Amino acid sequence: MAFDAKSKMDKTLESLKNELNTIRTGRASASIFDKVRVDYYGQKSPLNQVAQISIPEARTVVISPFDKSLISEIEKAIQVADLGLNPSNDGKVIRISIPALTADRRKELVKQAKNMAENYRTTIRNVRRDGNDDLKKQQKAGEITEDQLKKETDDLQKLTDKYIADINAVYDAKEKEILA
């Protein structure tokens, strides 16, 4: 039971990390484009599967499509993704300059990251609640003793506390990155 909760909590933490990576800080990063989907012959494909994303300078991203005919589709997909970026292409590659963040925009991004972290903390607590409910059912069915119930419940709480602390650490690191 506790292993099942642990795997769910692991997935939750990993999901938070992936979602926070999509928040644009002042620096260029390929992960900003993780949610961008390009219309590739009728299929919505992730940008990194139809083009190479490189970071030649701290505030510049260069996207080189594997198929040059996709350049306008990629440009359109970046604009539709609402990342606040203006791509420009020269017919061969797409260049994107990452603008410096204003103080207001930084505060907004910190607030967005904080909300994400809180949602994931709630998810962890829900996993704990489901685990506790499952343990109580097992105890009522006579599968575990009351002492085992107490021990498993305590273990589940310790696991929950660990993952909440991990979420806080991931959020704190992202906050520092945004405000840097």
Identify the notable features of this structure and list them briefly.
about 180 residues; alpha+beta; two-stranded antiparallel sheet; 6 strands; elongated
What is this structure, in a nutshell?
The chain has 180 residues and is of the alpha+beta class.
Task: Calculate the terminal CA-CA distance, rounded to whole Å.
Answer: 41 Å
Radius of gyration: 22 Å
Order of helices and strands: HEEHEEHEEHH
Helical proportion? 55-70%
Q: What does the overall shape look like? A: elongated
Output mean pLDDT. 88
Low-confidence stretches: none
Instruction: Supply the helix-strand structural class.
Output: alpha+beta
Largest sheet, spatial ordering of strands: 3-4-6-5
Strand percent estimate: 15-25%
Tell me the number of helical segments per DSSP (H or I, 4 or more residues long): 5
Q: What does the largest sheet look like?
A: 4 strands, antiparallel
What is the number of E strands? 6
Oligomeric state of the chains?
single chain
Protein model, in words:
The structure is a single chain. With 180 residues, the chain is of the alpha+beta class. It has helices at 2-21, 47-50, 71-80, 103-140, 146-179, and strands at residues 37-40, 43-46, 51-57, 60-65, 88-89, 94-97. A 4-stranded antiparallel sheet has the order 3-4-6-5. A two-stranded antiparallel ribbon has the order 1-2. Helix 1 packs antiparallel against helix 4 and helix 1 (2-21) packs parallel to helix 5. The longest helix is centred in the last third of the chain and has 38 residues, at 103-140.
